[in-house]
Amino acid sequence: MAVLILGLVIFLGAHSVRIFAEGWRDAQIARLGEKGWKGAYSIASIVGLVLIIWGYGIARRVPVPLWAPPVWAPHVTALLTLVAFILFPAAQMRGTRLKSVVKHPMVIGVALWALGHLLANGTMNAVVLFGAFLVWAVFDFAAARRRDRAAQVVYPAGTLSGDLKAIVAGVIAWIVFAFFLHGWLIGVKPLG
C-alpha cells in the first residue's frame, strides 16, 4: 500500500500545486520557463502514475475487504464512466455546450470515474485509490471555479454539433476501453 500512497502523493501533489500553491507555481514558471515547468510537471506526473499502477497491482494481490459492493454497483459504474468518457473529450474540444454548462468537464469526469469505481469496489486499495481521486477532483473543481469567478471567465455557448462530436468520441472510447482494454490492462472485465 505504501507504493500506491507514494504514487498518489506525487501524482495528485503535482496536480494540486495550482489548487494550494498557485503563487509558488507562478514563481517556478518564471524561474524555469513554461517549458521547464511543464517538463518537471510531466516527469512528476509520469513517476506518480507509474507508482500508482505498480502500487495498486501490489495491493490487489492481498485485498483487504471493507464491504461487499451491491449487485447494482457495476451497472451504475458503467453509466458513470460512460458519462466520464464523454466529458473527457468535451473538455478538449472547442464549441461544446457541455463545457459551457459543466465548466470543467475533465475534473467532473474524473470525479464520476472515481465515484463509480468506489461503488463497485469494496477493498482498502480501491478506497485509497479512487477516494483520493474523488477528493482531489472536488478540491480541484472548487479551486477552478474560484479562479473562473475571479477572472470573470465566460465559457462560449457551444453548439449541438460540438456536443455530438464529444458524445460520439466518448462513447467509442468507452466501448473500446470497457469491452476490450479494461480486461487486458486492469485484469477485470467490467461488462463481461
Automatic annotation (TrEMBL):
- The principal localisation class reads membrane
Give residue ranges for domain NnrU: 3-190
What membrane topology does the UniProt entry give?
A: Multi-pass membrane protein
GO cellular component labels: membrane
InterPro entries linked: NnrU_dom
Q: Does the keyword DNA-binding apply?
A: no
Q: Enumerate the UniProt keywords alphabetically.
A: Membrane, Transmembrane, Transmembrane helix
Report the locations given in the UniProt record: Membrane
Residue ranges annotated as transmembrane are 40-59, 71-91, 111-139, 166-186
What name is this protein filed under?
Answer: Putative membrane protein
**Organism, per UniProt?**
Paraburkholderia rhizosphaerae
